[in-house]
Design brief:
Elements lengths: L5 H9 L6 E2 L2 E2 L12 H39 L4 H25 L11 H5 L2
Antiparallel strand pairs: 1-2
């Protein structure tokens, strides 16, 4: 068998250097090689994706502006502003929690303690 250089073996076995001539031969094409891709459709697709992204962002900006303006108008029309309603509800919740805690402390059953049965208390 004739001696082969490292490059010849690489070209022949891996197919990485497709089209590179080695001692007058080209490397054989394998079925697993990547397909040839044209750049034109990829560029056109990228441009369309970019334009679509710009259109989506413009739509989100218009819809978001409308929602913010509508919400501000709705809040102005309320009789009681939301911050005052929240403050009132917080005070009510604190008062209810304090009343519930006081009721547990002064309830007649609060003084009752759990007692163990006679056998458990004596350690038998």
């Amino acid at each position: 068998m004739a001696q082969q250089s490292h490059e010849d073996v690489l070209v022949r076995h891996t197919g990485i250097w497709r089209g590179v001539r080695s001692r007058g031969e080209t490397a054989p094409k394998r079925a697993m090689d990547w397909p040839e891709v044209r750049s034109g459709p990829l560029v056109a697709g990228g441009i369309l994706v970019g334009l679509g992204t710009v259109a989506v962002l413009a739509g989100l900006a218009v819809a978001g502006q409308h929602l913010v303006a509508t919400t501000r108008a709705w809040v102005r029309e309320l009789e009681t502003p939301p911050d005052q309603v929240a403050r009132l509800k917080w005070e009510q919740a604190k008062a209810a929690a304090a009343a519930g805690a006081e009721a547990w402390r002064v309830h007649p059953n609060a003084e009752v303690r759990l007692a163990r049965s006679g056998s458990a208390a004596t350690g038998r």
